[in-house]
Write a structure and sequence with these properties.
This protein is mainly α. It has helices spanning 14-33, 39-61, 66-93, 104-110, 112-119, 134-145, 150-182, 185-202, and strands at 221-225, 235-239, 248-249. Helix 1 packs across helix 6 and helix 4 (104-110) crosses helix 7 (150-182). The radius of gyration is 30 Å and the shape is elongated.
Length: 251
């Protein structure tokens, strides 16, 4: 029997991959444009890290707890929101321009995945964006995330954070629907156990579902395994009153 609920696989999710780009971009942004002694550096780095790590932790926890998975994904979502505000504050405090959602600059960043697919649509063996390495995915956004202008980097990261938030919202909504329809891990485990009991009861090859009475004294018998003799290792029914009663019966 396989795992009742699978877990892991987070490295192939778009939310985790986007969060990884955001974490790396935030780390290098802070390293280049902020004072390393500033508390803001630690807060931004921790928020970016939390957004990524909690997606992974939630995925691993999914095998045993839907509620834990949902809680961790919501923590990741909240961390991304905190980071979003930090980048918006950076632009506002320095009187730097913030891209409008429908600006050509913002649209160019948002279209990277679509543009990647279009560029490979005529190939016989196109590579999916999810199959790229972290370095290859970073290279797609490098024109913005490695730009000398901090406003370009900050705005590009804001675009990516909005994308990650959208993906996490979709993930959370789907998990909530699954929880309502199928219940949590404990409920699913109980359901699986009941189904297994019904299967065993219907399967007459399971001797424990029809315990016979002892042919000698009429008491219930116990399933035993012969330890010696020509039948060593084989199972048989032995009287539960043994050694007072030595009644036996074949399976």
């Amino acid at each position: 029997m396989g795992r009742l609920r699978p877990s892991g696989g987070y490295r192939d999710t778009a939310s985790f991959q986007t969060a990884t780009i955001i974490y790396d971009g935030t780390y290098w942004f802070c390293e280049k444009f902020l004072d390393s002694r500033s508390r803001t550096v630690d807060q931004m780095a921790q928020a970016a890290r939390s957004g990524r790590q909690n997606i992974a932790e939630g995925s691993r926890a999914s095998a045993t707890s839907s509620q834990t998975e949902l809680r961790l994904l919501n923590v990741a979502r909240a961390s991304q929101e905190e980071l979003l505000l930090d980048f918006e504050d950076y632009l506002r405090h320095r009187h730097l321009p913030k891209w409008a959602p429908d600006s050509p600059e913002a649209m160019a960043v948002r279209r990277v995945p679509q543009q990647f697919r279009e560029d490979r649509s005529d190939r016989t063996d196109p590579t999916d964006l999810k199959a790229l390495s972290d370095e290859e995915r970073w290279a797609l956004y490098a024109p913005w995330l490695e730009h000398d202008d901090p406003a370009v980097r900050a705005n590009a990261l804001i675009c990516l954070i909005h994308q990650a938030n959208y993906l996490l919202d979709q993930q959370i909504e789907a998990l909530e629907a699954q929880f309502v329809q199928g219940g949590g891990y404990s409920e699913q485990l109980a359901t699986a156990r009941l189904a297994e009991r019904r299967r065993r009861k219907a399967d007459r090859s399971d001797p424990t579902d029809h315990i016979p009475a002892c042919p000698e004294c009429g008491r219930l018998m116990v399933l035993r395994t012969a330890k010696a003799g020509k039948n060593a290792g084989k199972q048989f029914w032995g009287c539960s009153a043994y050694p007072e009663c030595k009644g036996v019966a074949r399976l």
